[in-house]
Amino acid sequence: MLRGSLGSYSKEDILARVRMALAEGVQQIWLTSEDLGAYGLDIGTNIAELLREIVVELEKYPRSMMRLGMTNPPYILQHAEEVAKILSHPQVFEFIHIPIQSGSNDVLRHMIREYTVEDFDRLETLDLIKRHQFPVINISQFYARPGTAAARIRPRLPGKVIKERSTEVTNLFMSYSLTDKLYDIGDLVDVWFDEVDEKRGQTVGHTKRYTKVIVPEVRTDLMGEKMRGRVEDNSSKWHVVVSLVE
C-alpha cells in the first residue's frame, strides 16, 4: 500500500474542536480519515476510546449526531464490538464506510491485505453481497497502482473480463432493495436534514440507519433540524419519501 506515515491528532484537540462546533450550533459531527480504525496507534490510544469521549460531548446536546467515515478492516476489527455499541447509541448514525478489495482470500494475499475473507463470513465477493445485502456499495474496478503489491500480480485479467465482472457485481447490487423491508408505508421516522436540492425541488435528510430521506419540496428552514416524518413512498432503492409531522 502506498500511504504516508500515520499521524493522529490528539484526543484533546479533537474533543476541543467537537465542543467548539457543538457550542456554535453544529448539529452533525462527521469524523473523516483515510483509516479511522488506525486512529491512535501512534499516540497510545484507539478509535473506541475517542468515540466514547465524543459521545459524552454529544449527550450534552441531545439534537446532535455523529457520523463515522472510512475505515479499513484490519484495525477496526480489533474494536468491532465496542464500535458496534457506539453505533447503536441514539446520537450516532448507523453508518460506516469499509472498503473490501475482494471476497477472495487468494486475491487478498496477493494484494497483501491484512485481513482474510474469514472476517467476512468466508464468502466470495458475490456471496458476500448476497448474504449481507449492503444498502450502499461503491463499486470500483481493479486498478494496478504503480509500486503496490497488487501491481505485481500476474497474470492480469483482460480489461473485458474486469468490466464483465464489475457489471455482474453491479447487477447483483441492483437486484435487491432494502427500503421497503426497513420501512412500511405510514411508519414514523426521525429525520436529520442536511441538504437542499433546489434542482430537484426537494429537501434531503437521513434516518438513524442513514437511509436517505426526501421531502418533495424545498425547505431551507429544515437545515440542521431533526424532524419526525411519515413514510409515504418506499418504492425506491435509494431513498424513502416522507411527509413531515409538524
TrEMBL record:
Name listed for the protein in its UniProt record: Threonylcarbamoyladenosine tRNA methylthiotransferase
Q: Which keywords appear in this protein's UniProt record, sorted alphabetically? A: Transferase
GO cellular component terms, alphabetically, are: endoplasmic reticulum
List the InterPro entries: rSAM, rSAM_horseshoe, rSAM_sf
Q: Does Transferase appear among the keywords?
A: yes
Give the encoding gene's name.
CDKAL1
Q: Does the keyword Transferase apply?
A: yes
Look up the domain of life of the source: Eukaryota
Radical SAM core domain segment(s): 1-179
- What molecular function does GO assign, one term? tRNA (N(6)-L-threonylcarbamoyladenosine(37)-C(2))-methylthiotransferase activity
